[in-house]
Design brief:
Blueprint lengths: L9 H11 L16 E7 L4 H7 L10 E7 L6 H10 L3 H4 L5 E3 L9 E3 L9 H4 L5 H7 L3 E6 L7 H6 L4 E4 L3 H11 L5 E7 L1 H9 L4 H20 L5 E5 L5 E2 L3 E3 L10 E4 L5 E6 L4 H12 L3 E5 H6 L9 H6 L3 E5 L4 E3 L4 H5 L3 E2 L5 H4 E8 L1
Helix pairs in contact: 1-3, 8-10, 9-10
Length: 369
């Protein structure tokens, strides 16, 4: 079961791409055409709704074939979805359940692992044990490369979620295009190209802002150059990890209500919170949170979140340990602010992590070059 079981997801996309390249252990559920060279450009933060609203300003997007929409895995955030892309499995299996989650066994109140900044005390190969598709493809004889910012090459997150590919550091469009082109020089090759310029603009200035549109133009320029310069007979795909909503009502947790009375840690992010309790009944805490937040958020106990398949149909013991005792998912454009980080979190305009279509619907475009 999946919260968006009617739509294929990023793990379906990566499985299908590698199956189309001949990796027999992958499943081509999207029925992608066989390929010898494939480039996947992942644009962090480019939701299907944002692309539909603003993409017609840049002709290159209309020149690509529209393969329909995919569903971002829950929570609709980079950590979770890039790991599902890298491994081909759902979040409940790989255990990367959000921007921050509690490290099991770290005491009381314990400490949070920020998966994008990582923690030197946590071994990324132990934390995320599922072999990546990149590793499996490499071991099967495919040429597998990643093109991304130099600063991400050796991070804990890259080791946990995207290990197995040859990392080609590139910080600017000409470097990215050159690296991707070189990576596809030989047949039986796959290159994954990542850019987060749009996500940064959305967080800082909001989706649809002047700065966001400038970033979208940069993305369009990157797409244009890749389509024009990649080797002939290369299959090119464009997708994203999540979309974005611009923050509306800001709810500081525990302000003028009893929400934080029994809370030891607040994880996740403002659109989807992992709430860790000191003691007491989860059911009582759920009732309190639902009463205080009303229709501004959905609140689940850990048990119920697993039962309804928020993290997929299979949830590992490690995932259960890392998950919040409660999960609070903001509705509409609300954000749930951690009182310990209220200034920083309140300053973020574009947000994601929740279940709205603007966050969870992502595009899949492509063209045979």
């Amino acid at each position: 079961m999946n919260y968006r079981s009617d739509s294929p997801s990023l793990s379906d996309l990566s499985q299908s791409i590698f199956a189309s390249l001949g990796l027999t252990s992958s499943v081509n559920s999207l029925a992608l055409a066989p390929a010898r060279r494939t480039c996947l450009l992942l644009v962090d933060g480019l939701g299907a709704h944002g692309l539909a609203r603003y993409g017609d300003q840049f002709p290159i997007f209309a020149q690509l074939n529209n393969h329909g929409e995919l569903a971002s895995h829950f929570p609709t955030t980079t950590v979770t979805n890039l790991t599902s892309l890298g491994t081909g499995v759902e979040p409940g299996v790989h255990g990367m359940l959000g921007y921050t989650v509690k490290v099991p066994g770290s005491g009381t109140p314990g400490r949070l692992l920020n998966a994008l900044k990582w923690d030197p005390k946590v071994d990324p190969l132990f934390w995320q044990r599922t072999p990546t598709l990149f590793e499996r493809a490499r071991d099967a004889g495919l040429n597998v490369s990643t093109v991304g910012d130099k600063r991400y090459a050796d991070t804990g997150f890259t080791q946990a979620s995207l290990r197995g590919a040859t990392y080609l550091a590139a910080n600017h469009i000409p470097e990215m295009v050159s690296a991707a082109t070189s990576a596809l020089a030989e047949p039986n090759s796959f290159v994954y190209v990542y850019t987060n310029i749009l996500d940064h603009a959305g967080h800082n200035f909001g989706e649809g802002s002047e700065q966001w549109l400038i970033a979208l133009k940069t993305v369009a320029d990157l797409v244009t150059r890749l389509v024009n310069e990649l080797p002939r007979n290369s299959q090119f795909y464009l997708s994203a990890d999540h979309g974005m909503v611009n923050a509306g009502e800001k709810i500081i947790l525990g302000e003028d209500n009893p929400l934080m009375n029994n809370v030891t840690l607040v994880g996740g992010e403002p659109r989807m919170r992992h709430i860790y309790l000191e003691s007491g009944s989860e059911d009582e805490a759920v009732a309190t949170w639902r009463e205080c937040l009303g229709d501004r958020a959905m609140v689940y106990s850990k048990h119920d979140a697993i039962a309804v398949g928020l993290f997929g149909g299979d949830v590992s013991d490690a995932s259960v340990e890392r998950m919040g005792d409660l999960l609070a998912i903001a509705n509409d454009d609300c954000v749930l602010i951690d009182p310990a980080r209220s200034i920083q979190e309140s300053s973020i305009i574009g947000q994601h992590g929740g279940l709205t279509p603007a966050e969870s619907d992502i595009p899949l475009l492509g063209v045979l070059i």
